[in-house]
Amino acid sequence: MVRGEFTDLLNSLYRTADTGGDLTDAPAAEAARLLRLDALTLALRSRRGMLELLWADPADPLGPELEDLQYTLGEGPTLEAARSGHAVIETDLGAAPNDRWPLFAPAACRTPVRAVIAVPLLLGVATAGVLTGYRTAPGPFPDGQYQDFTRFARVTLELLLHTPTHALASGTQGPDLHRAAVHQAAGVLTAQLDVTIDEALVRLRAHAWRHDLPLLHVARGIIAGSLRLSPDH
Fold it and tell me: What residue stretches are annotated with the ANTAR domain (predicted)?
């Protein structure tokens, strides 16, 4: 039954892409279920190499939480897939070698997630984004599951190419940019600390990591004026 449902979903999404539909037409929770995963995210890679979370199940914070951890710590499967241009799989985060994501792996193990698969969305030799799947049970991803994941990655790339960034950013025709508050807070810091936007983002991430706080929590505090970072740190 699930196999037939997955094929139906793929065919439906390809028809959607052929008629100009975009990523907002793809049901993240349904796709995760049919792929036998517990969370599914898609991140867009910017021209500067940064990853922006564009798509996830809006009712489930697990995927965005794992993506925010990677963004804050600067390492993890989504980032590695984007940088290498190759699929990245970890079947047991709790047993991963110490030199593999030494910050991300133990942080991820404080969530229910235990296994992860990340596939780059390639346009020629360029990486347009990364599709990442998370599973709460450790163990290998069987060949059939891996093949279904890569098939789904191809259709999400088709949908991504039709997705207007302004619509995603506005929230009027799709999900809001997940880290809009982070970028707004970085803008505030450039003025407060007289630093570049890249330095402001580093300060934000460092503060979140040092105090073990969610990055969005720190960003919203800076925007609201309830948190000010020292120029010296």
Answer: 160-223
